Every structure is written in C-alpha cells, then in structure tokens.
Amino acid sequence: MPAEEMDMQSPPQKPSDVLRAWLDTQLESLPPGHRLPTDRELAGQFNVSERTARSILGLYHTEGKVVRVPGKGTFTTSDMPVRIELPERTPSAESLSRRIHLGIATGEYRAGEPLPSVKWLSREFRVSHKTVAQAYDFLERRRFIYRIGYRYWVGGFGQHLRRVSRPRKEIYLFLNNSSDFGWLFDEKLNINALSYRAMERELLKHGYLLRYESTARLHRLCVSWARRRHFPYGIILANITPVAFQAALPSLVLLRSGAGRAPVPILADIGMDTLLRGVPRNMHVIRCGESSTQVARFLAQYIVARHWHSATFFLEALSSQALRMLSAPFKMRTELVHMDRGFSLGIVVKRPPSVSRAERFWRDFFRQRRKDDVETILSKYVPTTMAGIENEISVCSDFSSCYALHRRRKVWIFRFCGHAAEALDWARENRIRVPQDLAIISLVDDPGMTHRGISCCIADQEREGHLMAHVLIGDIPVRRTTKGYVRVDPEMRERLTTP
Length: 499
Description:
17 strands, 19 helices, Rossmann fold, 7-stranded mixed beta sheet, 4 domains, globular, Arc Repressor Mutant, subunit A, alpha/beta, 41% helix, 5-stranded parallel beta sheet
C-alpha cells in the first residue's frame, strides 16, 4: 500500500510510523517466506532515509518478526518453533547474538539454565571461538546473560544464587469475581492449567510468591497501595472477560510509574478473542484466541509443507462444548486456504445425539456463537460468508460413513486424543494403513494415550508458563506477536500416526 494512501486513512506524525504500520499489516496477511521490498525501495516509498528503513527492519529482525538474509533480502518469518540451525553463510558475532537473543525471547533457552558452550557453537556455525565470545559478550553487556567460569547462563547472576529474600516478593493473582481458585490449576476444568502451574513454579524458583484475590477487591487494593506507596511486584488478571477487563482499567491506572518508581508489571489472560482498547504500556496480554490461532496456523503450515491438499476436522457429538470449540476448524480452514487456495477442509460432526441434518446443526450452533464472530474468523484474509461454506459441513454417524464420504481426504484431525484413538482402532479393523493411507492428528496430548503413538499439535504450555513468569519478573526479553500479545510457538509431536 503506498504511503500516500495510508496517510489518507490514518495520518501519522512521522513517515517512520507509516512504515511500521505498513510492515505490521503485511506481517499479519503475508504467508511465511514472502519477500519484502528492499531497504532502498521502502525508503523511497515511505519518504524516509535508507538508514531509517534499515534500522526499522533490523529491529523487526531482532524481535523475530522478519528474517534478513545478506545478499537475498528480507522475508516474513514462520511460526515454527525456533531452533538454532546451520546457516547458509557464516554468521557474524552480531547475527549470532541475534539468534541467541531470539532463543531467549521465545523460551528456547530458559532463565537460570546454561547456554551452549563456546566450543559447541563454534563447531555448529563454523566460526572462531572469538566470534562466539564476542556474541556472548554483547548479550552479557545488555544483561540478558551472565558468565560463571567458562559457561554462560540466561538471566542475571542473582538468579543463579537462588537467594530468596524475606519477606518474599509478592505478586497478586486476581480471578474474575470469584474466590474459587482451584479450577485454575485443574487440567480437567481449565485448558491453560499447565501454563499456570509452570508459571507458579518458575515464580517460586525466583523468590516470588502468589497471593490470590477476587477482582471485586481490585480497586480497593489499588487505592490502598497508591496511598501507602507500597506496591506489589506484579499483577495477574486470570481468565478475565473483556467486560471485566474494561471495568478494571481505571484501577490499574494507579499502578503506573511514579516519582522514582517503575510501573507495576501486569499480565492479563483474556478469556475471549476480542479487540482490546486502552491497554496500559506496563500490561502484557496473553489471549486464548491468539493461542488457538497460533496452533491452527502452525498445523496448517505442517500440512501444506507435506503437500496434503485436503483434510477432515472431526467434532465429537453436538454438545455445547463442541459448539463453542467450532472456531478451531474455522481458524484452521482460514489458514489452510490462505496458504493453499485449492485446499479442501471438511468439517464432520460425528455421532450427534439427536441431529441428523446439517440445518439442525447450524441452528444449535448459532445459539452458542454469533454468526458475525464466525464470519470475522473466516474473512481474515479473504471475505467469506457462512453460506459459502455450509456445504463443507456434514453429519455422520460412524467412521465408515465418514470415510466413504471423504475418502480422498488423507488427514483426519481430532480435538481430543481419545477420539483420535477410536479412529485409529477403526482404521486397523478395516485394514486402512496408518499413516500410509490415512494420517491422524490430535490437538490435545493426553498422557494416558502416549502408548498409542498419536501425533499431536499442541500449545507448548510449559514454555508459555515460563514466559508468563518472566514477563512479570522482567529479566529477559519476551517475544511478541505483531499485535503485541505474548507469543508462544506451538509444538508438533510427530509419532506413529503421521509419516
């Protein structure tokens, strides 16, 4: 989009702001690996100096939003997990430090843990020991890592000593108008329970103690902290609704920075996928909708990379829970069609208790979700209406009828591991080879089903909990999405049901 057109829509104060806004828009819509214009082209298009364009793209590269390859250009990144891999060209100390920095920001290297040795990195990247030492020295000066003897560690030196002061540093966790916190850490009741457990363990390890309160007392406590000028070390708004979040904003303003005092870090776990307004700068947001979007995009990349051109997404029974989760296949369809225009995704409702027709399914579905919300998901890249995809929904009573109807689709995706195990048993009984003739993938990894060897694509909740803790501690950089949310890359666990 030309700079003049963007100016007419939302006039910024500086041309560099126009460039940043344009880059954010492109990163949201372009597929991974797409080449962006050169520094010179961007400078001419947005009326900035080439040095400014190079500086902005360099910052985006440091944050992991783009990849800059010398001699080839700047490319959009993938949502695949970060791994240090052998580069095409020998990296400099600066580029090597950026790779390590990105690993810290995504939780690949965790606070208090050792980094790879100088000798190992030297062999892995085919560079001298001096280059590796320079990269580590650069990160040490910025206090992202520290050195003990010949080893480097993530974080500050005080974390290695694990000395916990008395009284412990307190962080308050607020739950929306409730004093029942047990369900927050129960896997059967909260899909993000593992993240909260990992966060609590990481905070304890670094000398932070959680205190639990209802949001009904949030304003009273904030006023008391401001009056006494004695503030907690952090605030967590757990599973808060958008309405409750907007109501809490006036109280949270009291936690902003003051004379000689840094702002209190705030972590908000928004329980719904919605647009947030008036978010303070000291607030970090984790959004459930964003997590499911990352999983959908990651699995879509996995499927397209293996040259599969069709798949089937199963919903087990027509319960209210299944209806609420229907956004998952819609997000999957949006990402798959965006990456492969010819991709075909069928959505199958299996074994509904009293439904035999798709019309009844849609009527019950829209009692749980607004039609506009679903069409917003479908129209992320290309305008799409519900009427345009109704023929992609089918109702089947068993796997045999599903297979007969969708025989050409070689990938079956299930929300739960138990349902995937049932499909695996059916395939073996009917002499359908898995994964040669049919691949089966679950979006949940059930420890009780590990022996079945079912491949899973899941959100990495251990890493998410680690990053949630260090957002509050503020000791390491944390990677964010283009919308500013804390970014946690999903994980693909390939077992026996995928080739």
